[in-house]
Amino acid sequence: MYRVEWPGDSGVEFHLSHSDWIRLLRDAGFEIEELIEVQPPEGSSTRYEFVTLDWARKWPTEEVWKVRKR
Which DSSP symbol is given to 56? Predict the structure, then answer.
């Protein structure tokens, strides 16, 4: 896992790359059915300070992994 600490925040996040997620899910007996990259529609607003709407339309900041246990 990749440790992420944001300036001014006392929390710590851990992130996996997509290839690491695929490997982890397959090793745990899951079949990946779909990866949905959630993008904001036109006319939407945001409460995030770290990413603009234009950026999020190009590179989604949220994802949904749809998997099924084999």
Answer: H
Supply the pTM of this predicted model.
Answer: 0.70
Burial category of 52 from C-beta neighbours within 10 Å (exposed 0-12, middle 13-18, buried 19 and up):
exposed
Q: What is the mean pLDDT of each run of 10 residues along the chain (70 residues)?
A: 89 92 96 94 85 87 94
Query: How is the chain split into domains, by residue range?
Result: 2-69
Query: Rounded to an integer, what distance in angstroms lies between the CA atom of residue 25 and that of residue 37?
Result: 18
Question: How far apart, in whole angstroms, are the C-alpha atoms of residue 58 and residue 5?
Answer: 24
User: If DSSP codes are grouped into helix, strand and coil, which group holds residue 2?
Assistant: strand
